[in-house]
Amino acid sequence: MKILAGPSSQFLASRVAKETKCDLALVEFKKFPDGELYLRIADELDGEALIIQSTVTNDDVISLLQLIDAASDCYLRIVIPYFGYARQDKQFKPGEPISARAIARSIDADEVHLVNVHDTSTLDHFKLRSKRKAINLSAARIMGNHLRGMRFESPLLVSPDEGAVQLVQDTADAMKAEFDVLVKTRVSSEQVIIQPKHVDVDRKEVVIVDDMISTGGTMAGAIKLLKSQGAREVHVACIHPVFSQNARLLLYHSGVESIIATDTIERAESVMSVAPLIKEGLQMR
Ligand code: R5P
Questions:
Q1: Which residues contact 2 (CB under 8 A, 6 or more apart)?
Q2: pTM for this predicted structure
Q3: 221 lines ligand 1 (CB under 6 A)
Q4: Residue 118 alpha carbon, nearest atom of ligand 1
Q5: Where are the alpha helices (H) located in 151-216, listed in sequence order?
Q6: Residues above pLDDT 90, as percent of the chain
Q7: What average pLDDT does this structure show over 164-178?
Q8: Domain 140-263 in the same topology as domain 2-138+273-282
Q9: Is 6 near ligand 1, meaning CB less than 6 Å away?
Q10: What is the tens place of the pLDDT at every residue in 123-133?
């Protein structure tokens, strides 16, 4: 099996190649003057290919489709570490597309593996040649192990909302730390209090964990709140560091101590690799 590294996942694909002892095929990429993309697989394939490509931008989606087409004669295994448009996973208003479904349906492959996809209902939209179901891999254990290595004295993991509770619980289990979730309580028609449901954060090293940080707005609000409630330090950890607009500035302005993320999207903050998880996922067939 040869690994085809898409333009958005070159470091991660190299790490997976090292973990699995598979060769990386050479792929040439370029952009035409009108903005259209070109690629060419410059190595011979051997009947089985593994494409690794996150779809952070629209161009990344095109590159993924081009790689799939170029390798379509092979048994095709695809890893999309960050699956963009995953938050448009239902029709919120009449007339809207289910964008996650539209992209999933355009993928023609034998196997698909995603990492912490926003909602697992997206997996049902892939119609695979092998009739397998797409697989969602969770990096919670990788994140929990990394956080344990940070040797906090009195750590508390916090989910910023109900949506991330399972991820935070699994991360806390791996870290062997306690966890909590921020909840809104309406005190009066004018006043709402947001606070951890069970645990007092006073003097604790709090790590807010979420599947992704996009604009940073969710995290920035939670950081300010937890600091005002007495947290000694507030760190943030996420699987997918989307970091749109001025997310980092917003986080540091809110007083964050550190930002850590995985390499599903390759950023300076990607200190945890999901390569071992992908290797495990590929062995699941
Ligand atoms: C929401 O459903 C997600 O889990 C994240 O909480 C959200 O996407 C973060 O977005 P932002 O960084 O823009 O607040």
A1: 22, 23, 24, 25, 43, 45, 46, 48, 49, 50
A2: 0.94
A3: no
A4: 4
A5: 165-175
A6: 89
A7: 96
A8: yes
A9: no
A10: 999 999 988 89
